[in-house]
């Protein structure tokens, strides 16, 4: 297949990212090693999967397909995969209606799948969540009783103390940013507009015990790209600047901190330190890295790239995104930045029980390894998979009664780079040793994010 302009291959439709043609079910999956019996639940993972023969202008725009693996009492009971039946998928509904308004149900729902308050939600940042059953059937779009009027980020944060789900939505027209809060019981109890200079692609945010942190970064919405249609209407814009905003969760103004220009798809975690500073760990793309990466998945080449000599070549030579720490001091107004690791990585995860609180460990996926970062010692360890295997996001599942932060497992779907097959790898998070491997009945395309959903589901 080729891009719409017919000049370059669509890397997101080939090899380990190539979509699968259909939905299947399989039971009694072969297991190597020993699955811990307490891992009883479901691992669901979402990602774009264009229908066979349909064009796909951008890796981020294909219709969502959720892959599920059911584990129970040491057995791998089933695998199944299902497209999320959004109105875009079933009826061809368009996000932009003929009158120029937005249909927030007409979205691909392809980025994440999370449980909250008895619901399982498939998410994409431009639109409404879609509720799924524990068997991966689509219930329908969820607007929380008509209260959610716009999009919901694919990266909501569940507060481990209150059980609330904090999230946001960004708009292409005002309001550009809205903060939302779901109660532990799943009711939308707060929606608050946040002032930002313009519409940007805000993929993630951070929370601490007392604050929310906004990533107002220079990948901006471009109406001309939207009119052209098909892909992602965002591009790098040097003129926008880059800032992080610290907003009290209880209400109050946003304190903005200018930072070095960059883009961040994913935050690892954030917290307030003893001095009251806000510490944010995320995976950072330098401008040249983003400008090189974005067209490789179907994004618009930035006009300014012509002035950045050999940007794609440079980024390819130096890797792409890396773990980075911002320390924001509300007392002084200072923002300190420091790299945390040299290795190019993405998809940072942590023990969800520490969301918003100090963490020692983050886990990431490198091109051919699963990496554990010890931020106390500054060291990292990796399970190297070799050049033929690509790991997906490694989701941490804490052991029952865990006494240390890394007592538990990492779950990651690993896919053959040539597109031959996949396995669900279960690692001991303490030392990255292999606890078990579930052989999946088909290749699972490299996708985005997933969740472990323990029994009982609700
Ligand atoms: Fe993401």
UniProtKB/TrEMBL annotation:
Cofactors (names): Fe(2+)
Cofactor note: Binds 1 Fe(2+) ion per subunit.
Annotated EC: 1.13.11.-
Family listed: Belongs to the carotenoid oxygenase family.
UniProt biased composition (Basic and acidic residues): 335-352
GO MF terms held by the record: carotenoid dioxygenase activity; metal ion binding
BP GO annotations: carotene catabolic process
A Pfam family that the UniProt record links to this protein: RPE65
UniProt-listed PANTHER family: BETA-CAROTENE DIOXYGENASE (PTHR10543), CAROTENOID 9,10(9',10')-CLEAVAGE DIOXYGENASE 1 (PTHR10543:SF89)
Origin: domain of life: Bacteria
Region (Disordered): 331-352
Record key words, sorted: Dioxygenase, Iron, Metal-binding, Oxidoreductase
Enzyme class: oxidoreductase
Record: residues binding Fe cation: 155, 203, 266, 449
Protein name according to UniProt: Dioxygenase
Keyword Zinc set for record: no
InterPro entries documented for this protein: Carotenoid_Oase
Organism the protein comes from: Nonomuraea montanisoli
